[in-house]
């Protein structure tokens, strides 16, 4: 993939050229744009932007362009600036991640083009698993049991990296395991960088947050393809119901609009406009629980794309990073910030103690047809539809 200079990437030219234009007359969310290149260089101003985004909205854009292979031992950050970045599992390579995502979009099309009777062979819900296939309308978006309007396919990180027994999967995925491995490793290196930076801002002991998210740990980390066909113009509904993410860090690639966030203290849903060369990053519930609410996991949903994009199928590619399965989701010790937040919010002391695996299973399966919706809520369930 060619490596273009920022001069060749003017801010006004961030649209996807092979997609209908995103409309200019819809409300868009105030996501900060953060440069991965500057984070890797240890730019304190950019790190401050990351901290602000993770505390106030929990969503931000990450510009992946111009970041080649950063040194795997230090993440490309000078050791005297960020000495707790170490033991990376892959190079931080934004351009490689963009190329892998582009290739995986093509693989996703092949998966969803399979006959329904073939795809449902890989629905593993009855085995108590959230990996594999979920069919169109097989999820619910509220307590009334309203069906969703998307299908998705989840690939386990542990399966691809050989940490667990292989799961049943369509034959067409077999030749692409190395591509999936590359995408997972580079996504996780990015997650490790973000966690290391947040670890420092929180004043936690060296490597605490990254140590709960080792690539080689058994966890719920996964790649997901999401496919949402155009909806009838006279019957457009929410494709994926409002929710907070289950885990720690989500890396999202998409080309069409439809993702919406509900900003704090607002009743107005705002679109997240996809930007070429960028990923949308957001934090999940685990980061709220581990920091006693200092960091934010914001409510979001997916609706039909706006404007001219409405008549096109919306596909997304996601990497979900979660804590290791056996990590207890409770406020961490060793940070003055977290200790003070715990003192100011004593209700956090009485929260249930639940493992990462139990939390994810409870939430994920609660949103499937026949699941227990009462267990599907996240850290902001008070604002979720009932």
Automatic annotation (TrEMBL):
Q: Does the keyword Oxidoreductase apply?
A: yes
Return one GO MF term: metal ion binding
Name all Fe2OG dioxygenase domain ranges.
219-323
Please give the PROSITE patterns that the UniProt record associates with this protein: FE2OG_OXY
Its Gene Ontology biological processes? small molecule biosynthetic process
Keyword Calcium on this protein?
Answer: no
Recite the UniProt keywords alphabetically.
Answer: Iron, Metal-binding, Oxidoreductase
**What InterPro entries does its record include?**
DIOX_N, IPNS-like_FE2OG_OXY, IPNS-like_sf, Iron_ascorbate_oxido_reductase, Oxoglu/Fe-dep_dioxygenase_dom
Q: What family does the Swiss-Prot or TrEMBL record give for this protein? A: Belongs to the iron/ascorbate-dependent oxidoreductase family.
The entry's protein name is: Clavaminate synthase-like protein
């Amino acid at each position: 993939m060619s490596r273009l200079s920022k001069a060749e990437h003017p801010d006004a030219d961030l649209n996807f050229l092979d997609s209908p234009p995103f409309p200019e007359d819809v409300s868009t969310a105030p996501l900060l744009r953060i440069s991965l290149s500057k984070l890797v260089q240890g730019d304190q101003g950019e790190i401050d932007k990351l901290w602000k985004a993770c505390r106030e909205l929990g969503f931000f854009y990450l510009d992946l362009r111009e970041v080649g292979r950063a040194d795997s031992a230090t993440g490309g950050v000078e050791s005297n600036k960020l000495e707790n970045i170490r033991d990376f599992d892959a190079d931080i390579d934004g351009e490689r991640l963009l190329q892998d995502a582009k290739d995986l979009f093509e693989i996703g099309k092949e998966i969803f083009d399979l006959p329904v009777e073939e795809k449902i062979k890989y629905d593993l819900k009855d085995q108590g698993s959230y990996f594999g296939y979920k069919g169109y309308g097989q999820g619910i978006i509220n307590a009334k049991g309203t069906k969703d309007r998307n299908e998705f396919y989840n690939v386990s990180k542990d399966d691809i990296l050989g940490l667990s027994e292989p799961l049943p999967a369509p034959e067409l995925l077999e030749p692409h395991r190395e591509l999936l491995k590359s995408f997972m490793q580079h996504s996780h290196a990015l997650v490790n960088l973000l966690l290391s930076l947040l670890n420092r801002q929180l004043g936690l002991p060296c490597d605490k947050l990254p140590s709960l998210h080792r690539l080689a740990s058994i966890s719920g980390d996964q790649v997901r393809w999401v496919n949402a066909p155009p909806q009838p113009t006279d019957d457009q509904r929410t494709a994926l119901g409002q929710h907070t993410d289950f885990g720690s860090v989500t890396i999202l690639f998409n080309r069409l609009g439809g993702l919406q966030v509900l900003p704090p203290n607002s009743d107005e849903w705002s679109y997240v406009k996809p930007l070429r060369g960028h990923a949308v990053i957001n934090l999940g519930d685990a980061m709220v629980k581990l920091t006693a609410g200092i960091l934010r996991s914001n409510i979001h949903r997916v609706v039909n794309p706006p404007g001219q994009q409405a008549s096109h199928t919306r596909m997304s590619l996601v990497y979900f990073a979660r804590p290791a399965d056996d990590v207890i989701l409770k406020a961490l010790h060793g940070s003055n910030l977290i200790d003070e937040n715990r003192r100011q919010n004593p209700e956090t002391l009485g929260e249930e103690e639940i493992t990462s695996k139990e939390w994810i299973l409870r939430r994920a399966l609660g949103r499937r047809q026949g699941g227990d919706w009462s267990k599907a809520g996240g850290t902001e369930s008070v604002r979720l539809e009932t």
